[in-house]
Amino acid sequence: MADASILNAPPPGLSDQRRSDEPCTIVIFGASGDLTWRKLIPALYHLYCQGQLPSPFRVVGFARRDKTDESWRGEMRAGVTEHANGPHDGLERWEEFAANLSYLRGDLNDSEAYTALAARLEQFGEPALRANLVFYLAISPSLFGLAVDQLHEAGLLERLEDDAAGWQRVVVEKPFGKDLQSAQELNAHLIRHARERQIFRIDHYLGKETVQNIMMFRFSNAIFEQLWNREAIEHVQITVSENIGVGSRGGYFEEAGTLRDMMQNHLLQILSLVAMEPPPSLAAEDVRNEKVKLLKSIRPITPETVAEHVVRGQYFAGAINDEARKGYRQEERVDPASNVETYVAAKFFVDNWRWSGVPFYLRTGKNLPLRASEVRVQFRPTPNVLFAARDDLDLQSNALTLRLQPDEGIFLRFNGKVPGNTIATRPVRMQFGYDSEFGAYTPEAYERLLLEVMAGDATLFIRRDEVETAWQIVDAIREGWGDEPITNSEIYAAGTWGPEAAEELLARSGHKWHNPQPEK
Ligand code: BG6
Questions:
Q1: What is the pTM assigned to this prediction?
Q2: CA-CA distance, 96 to 25, in Å (whole number)?
Q3: Domain for residue 1, yes or no?
Q4: Which of 32, 272, 364, 461 could form a disulfide with 240 if both were Cys (CB 3.0 to 4.6 A apart)?
């Protein structure tokens, strides 16, 4: 008979309630940067308040600026005040939490700084706080290699066969390289001092509840999974729209552009979860194998086919909700003649048995009318008899929308009869909202991701071959664009749904973008 404790144990990967019991120290490189203040410390504070951090734990902030423990804690407290928005947004437990935070001033290329870091870890006294280490690299990717070399030199990072004597994990933020070649170089560098199992490449979209729910939804609901193929589905649209411009990140954006900043990671990740085959288990390697397989099944867009399959765009001055917006070329630290794209729409085909012939339309852009991320699955129409044969009826094909943010939920559109003595019809919606079902609070992506790192589960992180395959897909697109200047058909006013050419991309196949609706 099966052992009951095995049956009740959470499955490896995606287990429902994480709590790492092993004491550990999280060292944040880039501790005076925006991410630390805005996301990482508020997430850790939340986890602490919910009793999900190990006891004891320590956080060491490492950066170049001159600060004391006290002044850094003060800044982090302000971050929590401004950015924490869950059930523990008060500061009642701040002092007890903050007692675990300390600051270390250091240059990333100065070996003495790492010796000082090692000494700090020793001072903690408790051996597990020195043995179990998370190195969070919230720094420029050009410095990742340097940081891991130095950590290794200081005896803090080794390629570990297993976790028997403690664990050392490296978390890297995006952008992971700027093309396939730089990503390969970066991977080759990291792998010198850490095994793949010790490397956690972040894509914060994977930490979002609703993105994780794509898998649950698909693989635990028979009625949908049976329709999840080319027989029933006509096409799929994935929209990630933002209602902000590049703001103060003009310098970064000039190097990146939307293809690298959003499409290479967040959108391709959503696509792989929507379209992948069911993995044999929820273990990290099984899930990631399926995602890589899916990415490899995407029909390559070549420099020759790019014009037919991809549209780029750049916003010019406009307004969103009556608020004036600058054009991209007028943003701070942006070249006034810049050709960098702030919008991309692409039509992909997944050449495998399940999806042959089904277009997947992906689009994302800055300064669009509203902030919303959605996956819309458009089903095929009914046969052209009975109701469908009548052109006086308002019939639409079924559509399923997974609303990832905000107003998280799932909606199914079908046709209903308008009550009365005629046969008038109208599309209606069946809807599930996270808010009404589970209450308003959904944990921040970084809470989940930090917990997973401490638990050593890499399911929600990007594997080496995954990141490289995604670069391969977008590199060919960039190559196709070459140095061609952005044309008039590629620009769009801030506050509109992107360039004309993006509408034509779908119209050529008789399809139409479905724009997300404003939050209720
Ligand atoms: C980041 C991009 O990865 O994702 C930003 O660098 C973008 O340009 C952001 O604004 C969007 O994330 P979210 O969670 O607000 O949808």
A1: 0.94
A2: 16
A3: no
A4: 364
Characterize the bridge pairing of strands 359-365 and 233-241. Answer: parallel
Total of domains in the chain:
2
pLDDT at 7 over 90: no
Is residue 419 in some structural domain?
yes
Q: Rounded to the nearest whole angstrom, what is the distance from the C-alpha of residue 275 to the centroid of ligand 1?
A: 22
DSSP three-state, residue 11: coil
pLDDT for 15: 44
- Which residue's structure tokens are 């403690």? 166
Q: Which residue's structure tokens are 């649950």?
A: 216
For 355-362, what is the mean pLDDT?
A: 98
Atom of ligand 1 nearest to the CA of 203: 3
Q: What is the pLDDT of residue 440?
A: 67
504: pLDDT strictly greater than 60: yes
Supply the range of the domain harboring residue 311: 207-507
Ligand 1 centroid–CA 178 distance in Å is 17
46 is catalytic: no
Name every residue whose Cβ is closer than 8 Å to that of residue 491 and which is 6 or more positions away in sequence.
313, 314, 315, 316, 499
- Owner of token pair 């420099």: 303
Q: Which of 83, 205, 261 to mutate to test the pocket of ligand 1 (most atoms within 8 A of CB)?
A: 261
**Averaged confidence pLDDT in the chain:** 93
CATH code for the domain in which residue 323 is found: 3.30.360.10
Contacts of 390 (CB under 8 A, 6+ apart): none
